[in-house]
Amino acid sequence: MRPPQDKQDQHAGAAPPSVDAPQHAGGGPAPSDAEQLASLRKENEQLKQAIDSRPRIDMARGILIAQLGCSAEQSWEILVEVSQHSNTRMRVLAEQMMAAVSGKEPFPDSLRDHLVAAIARRSVPEHEPGLSG
To answer: What digits encode the pLDDT tens for the residues 77-86?
Structure first.
Protein backbone atom coordinates (compact mmCIF):
# COMPACT_ATOMS: atom_id res chain seq x y z
CA MET A 1 0.00 0.00 0.00
CA ARG A 2 1.33 3.42 -0.89
CA PRO A 3 1.50 6.34 1.58
CA PRO A 4 -1.12 9.06 1.18
CA GLN A 5 -0.11 11.68 -1.37
CA ASP A 6 -2.40 14.57 -0.50
CA LYS A 7 -5.07 15.60 2.01
CA GLN A 8 -7.82 14.00 -0.01
CA ASP A 9 -5.96 10.66 0.10
CA GLN A 10 -5.32 11.01 3.86
CA HIS A 11 -9.04 11.18 4.59
CA ALA A 12 -10.03 8.45 2.14
CA GLY A 13 -11.74 5.63 3.96
CA ALA A 14 -11.72 7.48 7.29
CA ALA A 15 -14.92 8.64 8.93
CA PRO A 16 -15.43 12.38 8.60
CA PRO A 17 -14.74 14.38 11.75
CA SER A 18 -17.85 15.08 13.79
CA VAL A 19 -19.00 18.67 13.83
CA ASP A 20 -21.75 18.00 16.38
CA ALA A 21 -19.53 17.22 19.37
CA PRO A 22 -16.73 19.70 20.05
CA GLN A 23 -13.65 18.13 21.60
CA HIS A 24 -11.75 19.37 24.63
CA ALA A 25 -8.27 18.68 25.93
CA GLY A 26 -9.37 15.62 27.92
CA GLY A 27 -10.92 13.96 24.88
CA GLY A 28 -14.58 13.30 24.41
CA PRO A 29 -17.27 15.92 24.03
CA ALA A 30 -16.71 19.28 25.69
CA PRO A 31 -18.98 20.04 28.64
CA SER A 32 -21.85 22.40 27.96
CA ASP A 33 -21.89 25.90 29.40
CA ALA A 34 -24.48 24.78 31.96
CA GLU A 35 -22.28 21.86 33.04
CA GLN A 36 -19.24 24.11 33.31
CA LEU A 37 -21.21 26.63 35.36
CA ALA A 38 -22.51 23.93 37.69
CA SER A 39 -18.99 22.54 38.11
CA LEU A 40 -17.56 25.99 38.86
CA ARG A 41 -20.31 26.70 41.39
CA LYS A 42 -19.63 23.41 43.15
CA GLU A 43 -15.89 24.11 43.22
CA ASN A 44 -16.54 27.64 44.51
CA GLU A 45 -18.71 26.29 47.35
CA GLN A 46 -16.05 23.73 48.28
CA LEU A 47 -13.39 26.44 48.37
CA LYS A 48 -15.59 28.62 50.59
CA GLN A 49 -16.06 25.71 53.00
CA ALA A 50 -12.32 25.09 53.06
CA ILE A 51 -11.61 28.74 53.84
CA ASP A 52 -14.25 28.75 56.58
CA SER A 53 -12.92 25.49 58.08
CA ARG A 54 -9.24 26.40 58.06
CA PRO A 55 -9.20 28.45 61.30
CA ARG A 56 -10.91 25.61 63.21
CA ILE A 57 -8.48 23.06 61.83
CA ASP A 58 -5.56 25.32 62.79
CA MET A 59 -6.99 25.60 66.31
CA ALA A 60 -7.16 21.81 66.56
CA ARG A 61 -3.54 21.63 65.42
CA GLY A 62 -2.65 24.14 68.10
CA ILE A 63 -4.42 22.03 70.70
CA LEU A 64 -2.31 19.01 69.72
CA ILE A 65 0.90 21.06 69.69
CA ALA A 66 0.14 22.53 73.14
CA GLN A 67 -1.01 19.26 74.70
CA LEU A 68 1.55 16.92 73.17
CA GLY A 69 4.54 19.08 72.36
CA CYS A 70 4.49 17.81 68.79
CA SER A 71 5.52 19.71 65.70
CA ALA A 72 3.11 21.50 63.36
CA GLU A 73 3.73 18.79 60.75
CA GLN A 74 3.02 16.02 63.26
CA SER A 75 -0.20 17.73 64.35
CA TRP A 76 -1.36 17.82 60.73
CA GLU A 77 -0.46 14.16 60.17
CA ILE A 78 -2.34 13.16 63.34
CA LEU A 79 -5.48 15.04 62.30
CA VAL A 80 -5.37 13.58 58.79
CA GLU A 81 -5.00 10.05 60.13
CA VAL A 82 -7.80 10.41 62.68
CA SER A 83 -10.05 11.95 60.06
CA GLN A 84 -9.39 9.18 57.55
CA HIS A 85 -9.52 6.25 59.97
CA SER A 86 -12.69 7.47 61.68
CA ASN A 87 -14.34 8.57 58.43
CA THR A 88 -14.90 12.01 59.97
CA ARG A 89 -14.45 15.24 58.07
CA MET A 90 -11.47 17.20 59.30
CA ARG A 91 -13.70 20.21 60.02
CA VAL A 92 -16.00 18.10 62.22
CA LEU A 93 -13.03 16.54 64.03
CA ALA A 94 -11.59 20.00 64.71
CA GLU A 95 -14.93 21.28 66.00
CA GLN A 96 -15.27 18.29 68.34
CA MET A 97 -11.74 18.81 69.66
CA MET A 98 -12.44 22.50 70.31
CA ALA A 99 -15.73 21.67 72.07
CA ALA A 100 -14.00 19.10 74.27
CA VAL A 101 -11.15 21.43 75.24
CA SER A 102 -13.57 24.25 76.06
CA GLY A 103 -15.69 21.87 78.17
CA LYS A 104 -18.81 22.22 75.99
CA GLU A 105 -18.97 18.55 74.99
CA PRO A 106 -17.01 15.40 75.80
CA PHE A 107 -14.72 14.14 73.08
CA PRO A 108 -16.35 11.08 71.45
CA ASP A 109 -14.79 7.78 72.55
CA SER A 110 -14.48 6.50 68.98
CA LEU A 111 -12.47 9.56 67.98
CA ARG A 112 -10.42 9.36 71.17
CA ASP A 113 -9.41 5.79 70.26
CA HIS A 114 -8.29 6.89 66.79
CA LEU A 115 -6.48 9.90 68.25
CA VAL A 116 -4.57 7.81 70.80
CA ALA A 117 -3.57 5.33 68.08
CA ALA A 118 -2.41 8.10 65.72
CA ILE A 119 -0.35 9.71 68.47
CA ALA A 120 1.22 6.39 69.43
CA ARG A 121 2.23 5.68 65.82
CA ARG A 122 4.15 8.94 65.68
CA SER A 123 6.04 8.51 68.96
CA VAL A 124 5.01 11.99 70.04
CA PRO A 125 6.59 12.77 73.41
CA GLU A 126 3.76 13.16 75.90
CA HIS A 127 3.95 15.69 78.69
CA GLU A 128 1.56 17.19 81.20
CA PRO A 129 -0.54 20.08 79.91
CA GLY A 130 0.71 23.42 81.10
CA LEU A 131 4.28 22.26 81.72
CA SER A 132 7.02 23.61 79.56
CA GLY A 133 9.26 21.15 77.93
So the answer is: 999 999 999 9
